[in-house]
């Protein structure tokens, strides 16, 4: 949904076209994305004669849908010549790749948080504490605070650093366990990642089914391999994202960033 908002807002302006003249198609491993695309607050205001709103994402195809199209057209991915993605927004990061598996959002975020708090890149790039397919992963991580860091106020004592208690829930059943523990006071965390599907997006409802019981491990290993081979591994160092904030979103957590990239949910009646 974020990419749809960026395409209809930022990319349309950069390309010199109206948002209503662009068709945004997302390929997703998640069945729920088809319903989310219909939500009225995932829309972009249009200008000119067609003043009103247009959907951020016009169509959502599942991974399996795309696979069927390839089969019908006789397209064999293994036989295609590799090529670069189109720009702008064609540059990805290893951290972005990791979003596709359980623990990946946590790991990508910690890479950035560490640098924001300490003022320097982390000595290690991977967080093994967040990796794997365990139902619940927990860890306590202490980050040194830079001399001029605004996060010094969070240190319990000078030089003690900032300690983060993290948890990763793999699947909604495990998320329920964490929620129950937080509610009754037996668990306490500063940062919790929840992915509804077992394994994360790699195990989404729109993904190809397999009788191979190790398929999630194989897909997760592929995510880790892609991360390791990425030229940029920290999300905040992605030049395309930096330019996006510079030219459109202004800065992280700006009003515009919140308006275009965030959403909210309401209890069903």
TrEMBL record:
Residue intervals of the Iron hydrogenase small subunit domain: 210-269
Protein name per the record: NADH dehydrogenase I subunit G
Family note: Belongs to the NARF family.
Pfam families (alphabetical): Fe_hyd_lg_C (PF02906), Fe_hyd_SSU (PF02256)
One Gene Ontology MF term: oxidoreductase activity
UniProt-listed Gene3D superfamilies: Fe-only Hydrogenase (Larger Subunit), Chain L, domain 3, Iron hydrogenase, small subunit
Alphabetically ordered keywords of this record: Oxidoreductase
EC numbers, comma separated: 1.6.5.3
SUPFAM superfamilies according to UniProt: Fe-only hydrogenase
Domain of life, per lineage: Eukaryota
EC primary class: oxidoreductase
